Amino acid sequence: MSTPALTTAPQAIDPTFENVWDEIVWRGLVHVSTDQEALRALLAGDPVTYYCGFDPTAPSLHLGHLVQLLLLRRLQLAGHKPLGLVGGSTGLIGDPRPTAERTLNTRETVAEWVDRLRGQVERYLSFEGENAARMVNNLDWTAPLSAIDFLREIGKHYRVGTMLKKDAVAARLNSDAGISYTEFSYQILQGLDFLELYRQYDCVLQTGGSDQWGNLTSGTDLIHRVEGASVHAIGTPLITNSDGTKFGKSEGNAIWIDAELTSPYAFYQFWLSTADADVIERLKVFTFLTRAEIEEYAELVATEPFRRAAQKRLALEVVATVHGVEATAAVIAASEALFGQGDLKALDAATLRTALDELPHATVATGTPVVDALVATGLVTSLSEARRAIAQGGVSLDGERVEDDAATVQGTLPGGVSVLRRGKKTLAGVFLG
Known about the structure:
Radius of gyration: 25 Å
Helix content: 40-55%
Strand content: 5-15%
Number of strands: 13
């Protein structure tokens, strides 16, 4: 299938801002930080090295991590030098969750996830030019370190009273589960990471989510004590919806950036369903659209919200960034065809199949009557209701109106599947088996 050419925003710093600090502040990416004037001057000056860490506690990064990946890229576009850290050692421990201990994964699982996450992080950075990115693994400097050396050289710089005040630790101390020494020590390991990167690469800035602020400042404090130097940290806001719900969660499941865990079609639909109250902030955080372009979309949301122009652009930009332009064109074509604005028979079979997986669906034998398929997919509750819907002209199969309740499902679409529609917007997939 040939897909239409798509135009996406180039990855670039918006020249209407005096420096990249002003842009990331405007985009709402700074929730908490060390000295803001010093940071502004730092990012406006000569290239500096900065980092963000990603722990392999799952086989993929999710939307919360995407905020950090795009911030890493924005700072690189401004001329600074990124380090992408995948935590081969911290992933064996896990940072403290608010309510309970993490289940420790095997060393083999963590090593496998390190490789997967490394590949994901690499896709968002450039490894060429004077400010080429570099990938690092904190297992390289923690594995050779004995427990005695760790306690003597690093642990002696930490005060238990200060560690107890960290939000994540305090929350666990007040919970029924308490906190183990293992997870209590996590903040020391993250502080060690910053110290090592400062020593090896002159890294002077760490970014992370604001919920990690205690761990971020663990590093800035350690470097100040050990090296007598001032370094910086930026905590990005936790992205939430306007109704207060946690962003990127659907029935308790994260939205992953791995296409095998969240299909590009489902990823596209997630962004397309963004509420009007949230879409402009999402454009700021997750796209490279300029301030002027985003302000135009804000006007469209205010005056013509029914067109959902901002949501369509948001979905286009983010899916193209994460999954590429070709995959994005395929899912847009599938979305439009499923809802009556394109040719179902022209769709890519794999994309159509993943799209139907997101809809109500059922598996039936070839030649099954449409009335039975309507019941099997849940579009109707009975055969009599199915016949009535067909008689009223409200049912279509593979894009064609069903005129006869004796019609059968043949799987005429690419991949040998069919699409049932009842009314204008109620769809279901039919797999033949």
